[in-house]
Amino acid sequence: HFLHCYFSLLPFCVCLLLPNLAAPASNPTAATAPPLHLPPTAAAMKPSSPTAAVGTALHLVKTPNFVKFAAVALLSLSVALLFYHHPSFPSAAFSAFTFASNSSPTAVPANSTSTALNSTSIAANTTSTILKVKKLPPPPPSVAQRTGIVDENGAMTEDFDVGEFDPSLMEELRDLKGGAEETEKRNEPEIVKYGKFKPCDESKIDYIPCLDSFERHCPDSTLVCIIPMPNGYQKSLPWPRSRDELWLHNVPDTRLVQDQGSQYSMSVKDDKISFQDGGSDQYLNLVSQMVPEIDFGHQTRIALDIGSGIGSFAASLFKYNVVTLSIGTKDVHKNQIQFALERGLPAMVAGFGARRLPYASQAFDLIRCSGSGIDLTVDNGVLLLEVNRLLRAGRYFVWGGPQVDSNHERSLEDQWKEMEDLAARICWQLVKKEGNVGIWCKPLNNSCYLGREIGAQPPLCSSSEDPDNVWYVNMTACITPLPKDGNGGNVSVWPARLHSPPDRLQSIKMDAMISRKELMKAESRYWNEIIGSYVRAFHWKEQNFRNVLDMRAGFGGCEPFDTYPRSYDLIHAAGLFSDERKRCNFSTILLEMDRMLRPGGTVYIRDTLAVIGEIHDVASAMGWVVMVHDTSEGPHASWKFLACEKRMP
């Protein structure tokens, strides 16, 4: 723009200088007359001889005005040559020249004399010759109409033009992206408007989606209805009262009470089912006396009870500050796990058969298996080898039942011998046997495994086999080797373990490569603050929550959970829906949560603004009472908090 103005003004400057060089002075004494000292008339300017002409020309060259004109001309010539020969300057710059070769030369005033014209002919001819070397492009087009909401001064304006839209440009852009935009659009879940969900058939009162009698088999389609509650259902009794009695009609199938009530030490009285101790306290006292190193509540904090019945062993262990998970199968009338859950005890329906149990290796400090219904030595001892995978290094396995006391039937004596032999071959040490109780200890390291004879059975598992890969993985009849660094077994005692990150964090799969212990500590502080806010804001001391499920999509996915309907007082989900939005319909997840939630129960959902609206719609369609709250980050945060209540009808 600057060059355009410069070369446009140049001819005008030349026109101003030429009259000053050649025009006659009307008043030779005036202050404005050019200081050429020439005769005052035009006739006097005509030389009478060649010598006079040369003298006149020399006087003309020496004038200040001529020097100025020559300087301007040379400067213009230099700039023109620079733009012409330098490759980095666009050729469009030459369009600023108003004296291009195809245009008319600048006119000289009519009253100029031939002497003045002759004196400037050299510069004019030189410029014309240079500019004719290359034909210059046409002048730039006129300025296009301004579009947009910002005016020429950079200020916002209401008077604007958005311009025209060319659909072909979007097609070209989509082709360049390889259709990524369309693919992403297809992957996005369709937003659905939900009407009110209807109740399921009465036959689905105890429906568990992915479980038959022994193994998981998820159906191709899921129920799109609300699981009904039994007739006469009442809100569960608060803990610890629920440990000793429960409402009769809260468990639809009571044949277990009728057929085996005496075996499980339970009875029906009026509209309640009552539970007696059944000798569990004496049993635990015996175990503590046999092996004091078990140290309930300190060295032993997490226990697993296989084939536990109605959870009486777990109920007694609570007195010792031990959390015990009870697992059992679901068959025609043995719904023991439903009794355990209704009593407020941690329990899960799980088939102990062909597949691994859904828990990580070395997850439990103590594992107990009681009764003669489970043969741990069949199929090359695959069931006992699964117990070995789950048991922490250096910790204890308790086997109870009549088969332990070999002074009885011959068949029971054979079971004991087979068990004793298999346990020795997997390097378990029999610590103590007394009455119907036998206790073994798992080794702390691999030295015993490596010291066995070549070809000893069962073999060590392959190094390529991941002991923590559990979902839909079949059991294998091999010994899971222990980590060489001792991770998994070297944990702190309780309650220091709660706040001491284990060394095992360095070996499990995580996004972080370093500072894992710091991440765990920060995570603990974060959730301590959140739970503290829940307790204060929602008056948890008045809620009587007992059974709580925390749904974490990053650990285990989002398949239906193996539990009975109406199992939990509180379900918590943080970031679950935003993680699963491209894989699962929100209605599928929320209907499963409703199946597991007790009437009168509560659901807390923390998630992003992008999904919180649809969650609200589905929850309302299920009949939940939903309230949206800001998180502690404030009203402009990207996350919101939903508090949902499944009210009693």
TrEMBL record:
Protein known as: Methyltransferase
Molecular function terms, GO-annotated: methyltransferase activity
Any single Gene Ontology cellular-component annotation: membrane
Subcellular location: Endomembrane system; Membrane
Family annotation (InterPro entries): Put_SAM_MeTrfase, SAM-dependent_MTases_sf
GO biological process, one term: methylation
Keyword entries, A-Z: Glycoprotein, Methyltransferase, Signal, Signal-anchor, Transferase, Transmembrane
Organism: Linum tenue
Pfam families: Methyltransf_29
